[in-house]
Amino acid sequence: MLKQDMYILEWPFLLCISIGFLLHSLVVGQIPLGSKVSVVDNNFWVSSNGDFALGFFNTSDQPNQYSVGIRFNSDSIPVSKREVVWVVGADVTVANKSYFQLNQYGELVLFDSFKGQNVWTSQTSKLSVVSADLRDDGNLILLNRKKDVVWQSFNTPSDTLLPGQTLSVPQILRAASRNSMSSYFSLYVNASGQLQLRWESHVTYWTSGSPISSNITASLTSSGALQVRDQRLKPVWSAFGEDHGDVVQYRFLRLDVDGNLRLFSWVEASQAWKSVWQAVENQCNVFATCGEGGICVLTAAGSSACICPFKVTTESSKCVVPYREDCKSISNMVRHDHTNLYGLYPKGYSVIQSSLHQCESLCLNDTSCTVATFANNGTAQCWLEKTQYITGYSDPSLSSVSFVKTCSDPLAVNPNLMVTSPAQSSPIQSYEFCIPCLIGVASGTLVVFILIQLGVVFCIYRRTSSRKKAALAYTHNSSGLIVLSFSEIKDLTENFKHQMGPEMFKGVLSNNRPVAIKCLKANIEGRKFRTVVSKLGSFHHKNLVKLEGYCCEVSHRFLVYEYAKNGSVEKYVEDSKLSKMLAWRKRADICLSVARAVCYLHTGCREFVSHGNLKCENVLLDENLEVKVTEFGLWRVNAEASGCGFSAERDVMEFGNMVLRLISGCRDVRDLCEWAYKEWMEGRAENVVDKAIDGGINLQELERALRIAFWCLQSNKRMRPSMGEVVKVLEGTLTVDPPPPPFSCQGPLEIEELLV
C-alpha cells in the first residue's frame, strides 16, 4: 500500500500531514502495477500492520547518495532507531531524483537519475506479475494472476534475517559496505550443513557446531533462537538469545560491519535495540575486524579497540608495516609479546617448524618477509608473512610472539673522528704518583659527598612535612572528598575576592593548588546533600570536572571543583579575538568530548545521571584546552532533588543547541536553529560556520555534526538519539539519515518536556 512519510521535509506538507495520511491510508492491500516511490516525493510502501516500510534512505555522509530498502516503521520505535532490514541491490546508491517502481511489465526497477538508466531490476518481466505486497513480516513479494509468489525479498537477503526468513545454499548474508573492509564479511551455509562466517572466500573464523548433512536451512524464530534445520524441519543446531522465550515484539539477526553475527531484540522500556547473542564472543577473534586500522585489543571494560603498533610515517590512516623490499639501509626486527599478527591481503606466506630465534632470523634475512609470528605453544610453528597489510590480536592471554621488520636509517659518520693506527701512535709515557695530591682530592670529594647527602635528606624531610601538613589541614569523608567549614571556604577564597562567574569563586588550597568554588542556594537537608555530593564525587571521566570537596553547614552549601585555567567555551565563542583560537578541528573535538562525557553520565555510571544544564557556559577548557564539563547533576542538590524535567532527552536537546552555538558562534537559539536548518536544507551548510574560524573546515564532519544536532532538537523527544548514538555519529562510525525540521529550538522548555 502507499503512504506518505510523516516526516517529509517540505514545510507546506507538514501543515497538511493529517489530510495526506487519510487520503493515502485509503489505498489498502496489494501494490498495483505502475506504483512508484521516489526520493523527491519521499513516499513509502507500508505493510498492512504498519511495522515495515519500503522507501529511500540515506546511510552515507554524502547528501546525494540514496538507497532503497525495507526498514522497521512501527510508531513504538523512534525514527532514528528504525533499522534497515533489506536493501535493494546491496551496495547500489542513486541520486536525489531517482525512483523505485513496479512497472507495467511486472518488474521492480531502480532508476538512477544521475546515470539516466536502471541500475537494478527484479528480472520478473516474463512471470506475469500483476501486483506486489509488503507483508506484515517484512517480506516484499510479487504475485502473478494466480496469486502465486513468483519473487520475494526474503530470497535475496542483504545483511539481515527476520523471524520466519530462511537462509540456505547458495544464499549469503553480506555485511553492509560502510567502509572499505566491511563488505568482505559474509555468512553462508557450507556443503556440510554448517553456518560459517568468513572473510572474503578463503578465511573461515566461526562455524556452527559439527558437520550435519546437506540440504539444511537456517532461520530465526520469533522466540529468539537461531536454528539450523534438516529436510524434515527438525532443529539440528540452535543458538539462543539471552531473552529466549520472552515476549519481544521485534527481533532481527544481522551480520554487522565489524564481522560479528548478532541477534537483536527491541526493548520497549529502554527504547533501544539490545544485542542478546553474538556468534564470536571475543570480538578480537573475528578475522580482520580492525581491517587496515591496526590490531585488535580488549579494553578494561571488555570492549574491543583497534590500535596501530607500528610507527607509520605516511599521512594515510592505514596501519601498515614500515618496511619495503627496496630498503637500502639496516633492517631490524621489533618484538611484540602476546601478539598474533597475520596478513590482511596474503600474497604468499609460509609456515615452518623452528625455534623462536630461528623464526626471527628467517624473516630478517628474507627481503620479502615483513612479519614473523612464533606460536610459542609447543608446536614450534613459525608464520612468515610477505605483505605490508598486517592485522591481528594482542592480549596478555596469548602465548604467541610476533616480530615486525622495520627499515632503519643508517648512522651518520662523524668526519672529525680520527682513528690512528698502532704504527702512528705516540710512545707510552710513564708518570709518577703525587701522594699528597691524591689524599687532598679524596678528602675534598668525601666532604662534598656528605654535604650533598645532607642536602637531599633535608629536602626530602621538608617535602614530606609539607605534604603531611597539607593532608592534615583538611578532613576527608569516606569517598575521599575534602570536607570544609565555611570559615575555611572564606580563607581559600580570600573572603570571596576572586569571582569567576555567577556564584563561582577562585580559591587556593594549602598546597597551593587552585580550585573553583561554587556557592549553592540549596534547601536540601544536610544528610541528603552529603549523600548526593558523595555520589557526584564518585564520577571519574577525563572530560568531567573533578569534584574535590564540599562545605555543608547550617546555612551554607559549597562545592569545590578542580580548576580549569582557560575558562568556559562560551567566553571563547563570544569574544571575537578568542574565537579565532577555536579552529574547526578544536570545535569538532569539543563537541565529541562533551558527547562522550554526557554519554558516560547516562550509561557509564552505576545509575543514570542527567546533566541538567548543558550549555557552552558549563563546558570548560583546562590549561591544555582539553574539555571539562562542569555543573553536572546539580539539580540533585536543588529543590530537594525532585528531578522534575531532568532526563536524557533534555540533555540531548541541550547538546543539540550547544553544537549549533559552537559551530556558528551565534547566540539567539531559536533564530539560529531555524536559520541553520534552512541553510543546510538548501545546500549552504558552510554558511552556518562561524566566520572567525581560520584554516578551513572538514565538510564531512560538518555534515555529520549538523545532522545529529537537528536530530537532537526534534520536538518529539522519542525521535531524539541517545548520547551513545551521538558519540558514534561524531566519531564517524555510525551514519545518520537527513533529519526532518526540528522544533525544539527554544530557550524555556515546553510543558511536555518537563513532564518526564
UniProtKB/TrEMBL annotation:
E.C. no: 2.7.11.1
Protein name: Receptor-like serine/threonine-protein kinase
Gene Ontology CC, one term: plasma membrane
Boundaries of every Protein kinase domain copy: 486-734
CDD domains registered for this protein in UniProt: B_lectin (cd00028)
Membrane topology reported for the UniProt record: Single-pass type I membrane protein
Compartment list: Cell membrane
Chief location bin: membrane
GO biological process: recognition of pollen
UniProt KW keywords: ATP-binding, Cell membrane, Disulfide bond, Glycoprotein, Kinase, Lectin, Membrane, Nucleotide-binding, Receptor, Repeat, Serine/threonine-protein kinase, Signal, Transferase, Transmembrane, Transmembrane helix
Transmembrane region(s): 438-461
Reactions this protein catalyses: L-seryl-[protein] + ATP = O-phospho-L-seryl-[protein] + ADP + H(+); L-threonyl-[protein] + ATP = O-phospho-L-threonyl-[protein] + ADP + H(+)
Keyword Disulfide bond: yes
SMART domains recorded: B_lectin, PAN_AP
InterPro entries: Bulb-type_lectin_dom, Bulb-type_lectin_dom_sf, Kinase-like_dom_sf, Pan_app, Prot_kinase_dom, S_locus_glycoprot_dom, Ser-Thr/Tyr_kinase_cat_dom, SRK-like_kinase
Pfam assignment, any one: B_lectin
Domain Apple: 327-407
Membership in a protein family: Belongs to the protein kinase superfamily. Ser/Thr protein kinase family.
Species: Quercus lobata
Alphabetized GO MF terms: ATP binding; carbohydrate binding; protein serine/threonine kinase activity
Domain called Bulb-type lectin: residue spans: 30-155, 152-276
